[in-house]
Amino acid sequence: MAEGAPRHYKEAMVREILVWPHPVLKQKAHPVTAVDDSTRALIKDLFDSMYAADGVGLAAPQIGVLKNVIVLDTTPRQPEAKPLAMVNPEILTYEGKIEYKEGCLSIPGEAEDVDRAAVITVRFLDEQGVEQTLKCEGLLAIAVQHETDHLKGTMFVDHISTLKRELIRKRMKKLQAAQEADKKEAAAEAKKKRSGAGAEAR
User: Fold this and answer.
1) What is the SS3 assignment for 18?
2) Are 29 and 78 members of one domain?
3) pLDDT at residue 200, as a whole number
4) Residues 154 and 168 both lie in one domain
5) Torsion of CA 82, 83, 89, 91, to 10 degrees
6) Does residue 128 share a domain with residue 191?
7) What is the pLDDT of residue 112?
8) 7-19, pLDDT tens digit by residue?
9) Active-site option among 102, 110, 112, 147
């Protein structure tokens, strides 16, 4: 989930965040059978990638990993909150209703009003594999709903009108094409530099 809060991070393992409509983002993630070192490494990568992109939430499918893992940090808007990693999150209760203009790190530059529950209760495993139950309100409740949607292959644009969704899809397609062109140009430039270095060495 995008929020645009400035962050500081170090020793980052920043992973590429997939841009919708990448097909992986429509797939359902799989339950984590054991919270082990590989799970904790994934959690660190998710936090690093989320902070690098100035987000408040990120789900594993957004970096191409189909596992039920999400991370959240709403402290810029909720000082009483703390960074959270949730493994196999399951929302148990929904209360009330709130409309919030949501963005998404996989749909950069876009934001639309989405109806969410105002208060939720979520059950999950923490980084040590211990089961936790947490009542969430405000931005944290919205972020948990947004990120658990990702685990089901659902995007925030699935909650808006077809017309708005298709307009956003077209803009994201253009963005993807531009990103691919930039990657090819960078690869060609790197190859050119390697060739030049090799010629000088001879």
Assistant:
1) coil
2) yes
3) 63
4) no
5) 40
6) no
7) 95
8) 444 455 899 999 9
9) 147
Number of structural domains in the chain = 2
Q: Are 142 and 98 within 8 A, CB to CB?
A: yes
Give me the residues of the chain with pLDDT under 70, please: 3-12, 197-202
Same domain, 168 and 94: no
99 flagged as catalytic: no
Q: CA angle, 90 as apex, 145 and 1 as ends, to 5°?
A: 25
For residue 6, the model assigns a pLDDT of 43
Q: 155 and 171 share a domain?
A: no
DSSP percent split of the chain into helix, strand, coil, nearest 5: 40, 25, 35
71, two tokens: 């991370």
Backbone angles phi, psi at 169, to 5 degrees: -60, -45
Determine the structural domain holding residue 91 and report its residue range.
1-160
pLDDT of residue 8: 45
What confidence score (pLDDT) does residue 5 get?
43
Question: Are 32 and 112 in the same domain?
Answer: yes
Instruction: Report pLDDT for 77.
Output: 83
Helix ranges (DSSP H) in 116-161: 138-151
**How many percent of the chain have pLDDT more than 70?**
92
Whole-number Å distance between alpha carbons of 155 and 137: 21
What's the CATH number where 3 sits?
Answer: 3.90.45.10
Does 111 share its domain with 26?
yes
